[in-house]
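A favour between colleagues. Tell me how you read the following sequence-structure pair.

===
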Amino acid sequence: IAKNITVIELPVGVITSALGCPFFIWLLLKK
């Protein structure tokens, strides 16, 4: 079970980082 969770969480973390970084930069530039 632990292995399955890890396999699922890794891609989600990568996608979140890819979407979160530009969004965070946009918030900084917006101010």
Remarks:
- The CA atoms of residues 3 and 9 lie 10 Å apart.
- The radius of gyration is 14 Å.
- DSSP finds one helix and no strands in the chain.
- Residues 1-31 form one domain.
